[in-house]
Amino acid sequence: MVGPSTLDIPLADDAALGHVKQITRRSGTSFFWAMRLLPPERRDAMFAIYAFCREVDDVADEEGALEAKRVALAAWRQEIERLYAGRPEWPTTRALRRAVAAYGLRREDFLAVIDGMEMDAVEDIRAPSLSALELYCARVAGAVGMLSVCVFGDRSERARQLAREEGRALQLTNILRDLREDAARGRLYLPRELLEKHGIATTEPAAVLAHANLGKVCDEVAALARASFAAAGALLAELDRRQMRPAIIMMEVYRRTLDALVARGWRQLDRAVGPSKLSKLWIAVRHGFL
Questions:
Q1: Which of 74, 213, 258, 276 has the most CB atoms around it within 10 Å of its CB?
Q2: Which domain, by its residues, includes 28?
Q3: Domain at 36, CATH number
Q4: Concatenated DSSP letters of 52-103
Q5: Residues of the chain whose pLDDT is less than 70?
Q6: Cα 56 from chain centroid (whole Å)
Q7: Strand, coil or helix: what is 162?
Q8: Which residues fall within 8 angstroms of residue 132, CB to CB, at 6 or more apart?
Q9: What share of residues in the chain are helix, strand, coil (percent, to 5)?
């Protein structure tokens, strides 16, 4: 693999790096704690990847006509093509230019993220099939993991499997955490098969969240997330744990979030739960020095 210090790899300009760092810090993301463990150039690469995901996600989530969202996402696809042609124009892709060359980041992973956001943009997702939900998780989270493990320093198939499993676990946890917020946008990510299994015939988000059997559906989704956490943990045992420290930290933060959600239950959805900032810092310190 080409090293990040290779002289012929172009440096990102200061304005581009400042742009992606600002987006990451402003977001308050849990990923920030994991990113801080990385050496400066790898950390900058992760800031750029996160900023890309944040900006594409904002296209899908913002108010506006569906056609305008399609146009905006198409523009991102064109910009990714310019990035791989060595001619990025936007601040985030200028910040990504060195990371792409240094860590072998794949064009198809960036495009998969855009495809996932388009699943949100073209229509409000309501009770997707299990297969559609799997595809969504693979695109919006698994593909991000694929990019991340390359920056961490491992491009092996085992690392890619870790990215898929951990991405699935994290995204399913996000879905359970954000049930109320997503419903307010007209979205419902709980799979149709599980709703039908537990006698929930409607796909109207508010009606599903008020249904007496909501907890049974959520418990099954939580079990799917736990299975992926377990699979990711088994894969980590075969990888270099020092390289994968950021992935370990994210897994620990999200595993605790899932535990807190299950302990809270599914009737008080407005009551936020999850690790505190102090707890996240402790996790980062604990796993950062192992």
A1: 258
A2: 10-106
A3: 1.10.600.10
A4: HHHHHHHHHHSSS-HHHHHHHHHHHHHHHHHHHTT---SHHHHHHHHHHHHH
A5: 1-12, 28-30, 33-34, 275-290
A6: 12
A7: helix
A8: 119
A9: 70, 0, 30
Q: Give the tokens for residue 42.
A: 């790898």
Query: What type of residue is 249?
Result: I
CA 39, 157, 234: angle at the middle one, nearest 5?
Answer: 85
pLDDT of residue 4: 41
Given 48, 77, 106, the domain boundary residue is 106
Q: Residue 120's pLDDT is what?
A: 86
134 and 65 together in one domain = no
Domain end marker among 74, 106, 138: 106
**Residues 264 and 207 placed together within one structural domain of the fold:** yes
- pTM of the shown model: 0.90
Which amino acid appears at position 87 of this protein? R
> What residues form DSSP beta bridges with 126?
188
